[in-house]
Specification:
Layout: H1 3-24, H2 32-45, H3 47-63, H4 68-85, H5 88-102, H6 105-116, H7 118-144, H8 146-166
Organism: Mucilaginibacter ginsenosidivorax
Protein name: DUF2059 domain-containing protein
Keywords: Signal
């Protein structure tokens, strides 16, 4: 059954990412007001209301790799899992810490003010569309030059294999 290797591969990648992320993190301390400022900033960007859609997109993308007969059950299990461990309510404090580590409380307050402004709201609304268009441009660019990329890869691997073939 093809489902098990795909699921094992997905879980392996997820585990690797989590392990790698934990290995690279340190635990700085933040004041309650700095964490609150970071959370207010994140809410001003709209991430709290977009989070569910982002998770749904992740699930739908990964479910495309699962055979159709198991896809419905896969989606149900993933949604149950994500609600338990990967929702805005569960992760907002950790997200706040990420931003608190990069910005001072004053900077977070300034960013919040900007994102609550009409221009900030427009930026927030347009960012997903712009990112999608940027990704489409990148995919098109690679597709338009795919033969050249494939030739470059073949040449690079041929050079690596050449010394071994001489022995």
């Amino acid at each position: 059954m093809k489902f098990k290797p795909t699921l094992i591969a997905l879980m392996g990648i997820l585990l690797f990412c989590i392990t790698n992320a934990k290995a690279q993190t340190t635990t700085p301390s933040f004041s309650a007001s700095q964490l609150k400022a970071a959370e207010k900033f994140l809410i001003a960007t709209g991430i709290n209301s977009q989070f569910g859609g982002i998770v749904d997109n992740m699930i739908n993308t990964s479910s495309a790799q699962v055979p159709e007969a198991q896809r419905g059950e896969f989606v149900k299990v993933m949604k149950r899992f994500m609600v338990k461990y990967y929702s805005w309510d569960v992760l907002k404090t950790e997200f706040a810490k990420i931003y608190a580590a990069e910005y001072t409380e004053d900077e977070l307050n300034q960013l919040t003010a900007f994102y609550n402004s009409p221009l900030g709201k427009k930026l927030s609304a347009k960012t997903p569309i712009l990112m999608q268009k940027g990704m489409a441009l990148g995919q098109k660019t690679i597709a338009d030059h795919r033969p050249e990329l494939e030739q470059m890869m073949q040449d690079a691997f041929a050079k690596k294999e050449a010394p071994a073939a001489r022995q």
